[in-house]
Amino acid sequence: MDATLTSQQDPGITFLGAATTQDANGVRSVDRAASLLLALGDWDGDAGVTEIARRLGLHKSTASRLLATLEKRGLVEQDPDSGRYRLGLALVRLGGQAEKALDLRSIAMRELKIVARSVKDTVTLSVLEGDSVRTIAWSDAMGMSHQISSRLPLHATAPGKVLLSDRPERDVMRLARIGFRPYTPHTIVRADLLLEEISRVRKRGFATSFGEHQSTVNAVAVPVFDRRSAVVAALEVRAAGHRIPPSRVPELIASIRDAAATITGLIGGVVASA
């Protein structure tokens, strides 16, 4: 072997051991940075370097270097007066992009199937679209699932009331000026009565529709929340009136509320406190 190479490495050659060590260090740094961001996200307010280092089991100097690097990228921000850190605005932008990329229908479909088989009735997932409810998926009692797109009225359906419960009163008043269509004798067509109903939905966390859109169909619905605890969708059980009498409402609410909480967690949402 050439004596020169035994005493001095060729600068153009990367040795496997050195590369492996560098890769391992890089992965460890990424893992620490990710853990730091998650810890800050769970923190109630901002945090100091010493607190962060202690929680993550890092040396203070290591935590400080990670924070400085993340701050350069806008992922964390440092308060100039207190020196404490909080999540940066770059994460808001990334969170918004992640939300747009989520396929809520695909994510929720498994839960729709499970609940539909359990309650032996049709389960739907609906979102707000303009001044209507858009049903984007459903699963029947046999567990057959479908990705659909149908539009329903806000004021006469259980999902519609759930979605309206997160909207300001002025939205209801605007719809009232347009006029609420009386689909059946049970449809709420007065703004004051609808506002009272929506207030009840907020307090109890679910909505019902007993023959309000179709005289022979009853339904119950609960909210699905996003990361800001805003209502992003409604999970509903609907069936012929005799299948959903008032006495069955608590059972159905328990089933779909658990499923809605699971979907909320899967999309990174936070269940709103009562």
Mean pLDDT: 85
Q: Main sheet, how many strands, which sense, barrel? A: 6 strands, antiparallel
| Secondary-structure element order, N to C | HHHHEEHHEEEHHHEEEH
Low-confidence segments, given as residue ranges, are 1-15
Structural write-up:
This protein is 48% helix and 20% strand. The protein has a six-stranded antiparallel sheet with strand order 5-4-3-8-7-6. The chain has a two-stranded antiparallel sheet with strand order 1-2. It has helices spanning 3-7, 16-42, 49-56, 60-72, 89-101, 104-119, 158-164, 169-178, 191-204, 249-266, and strands at 76-78, 85-87, 122-129, 132-139, 145-153, 207-210, 217-225, 231-240. A hairpin with a 5-residue loop joins β7 and β8. The N and C termini lie far apart (76 Å). It is α+β, with helices and mostly antiparallel strands and 274 residues long. The longest helix is centred in the N-terminal third of the chain and has 27 residues, at 16-42. It contains ten helices and eight strands.
Features:
alpha+beta; 20% strand; 274 residues; two-stranded antiparallel sheet; 8 strands
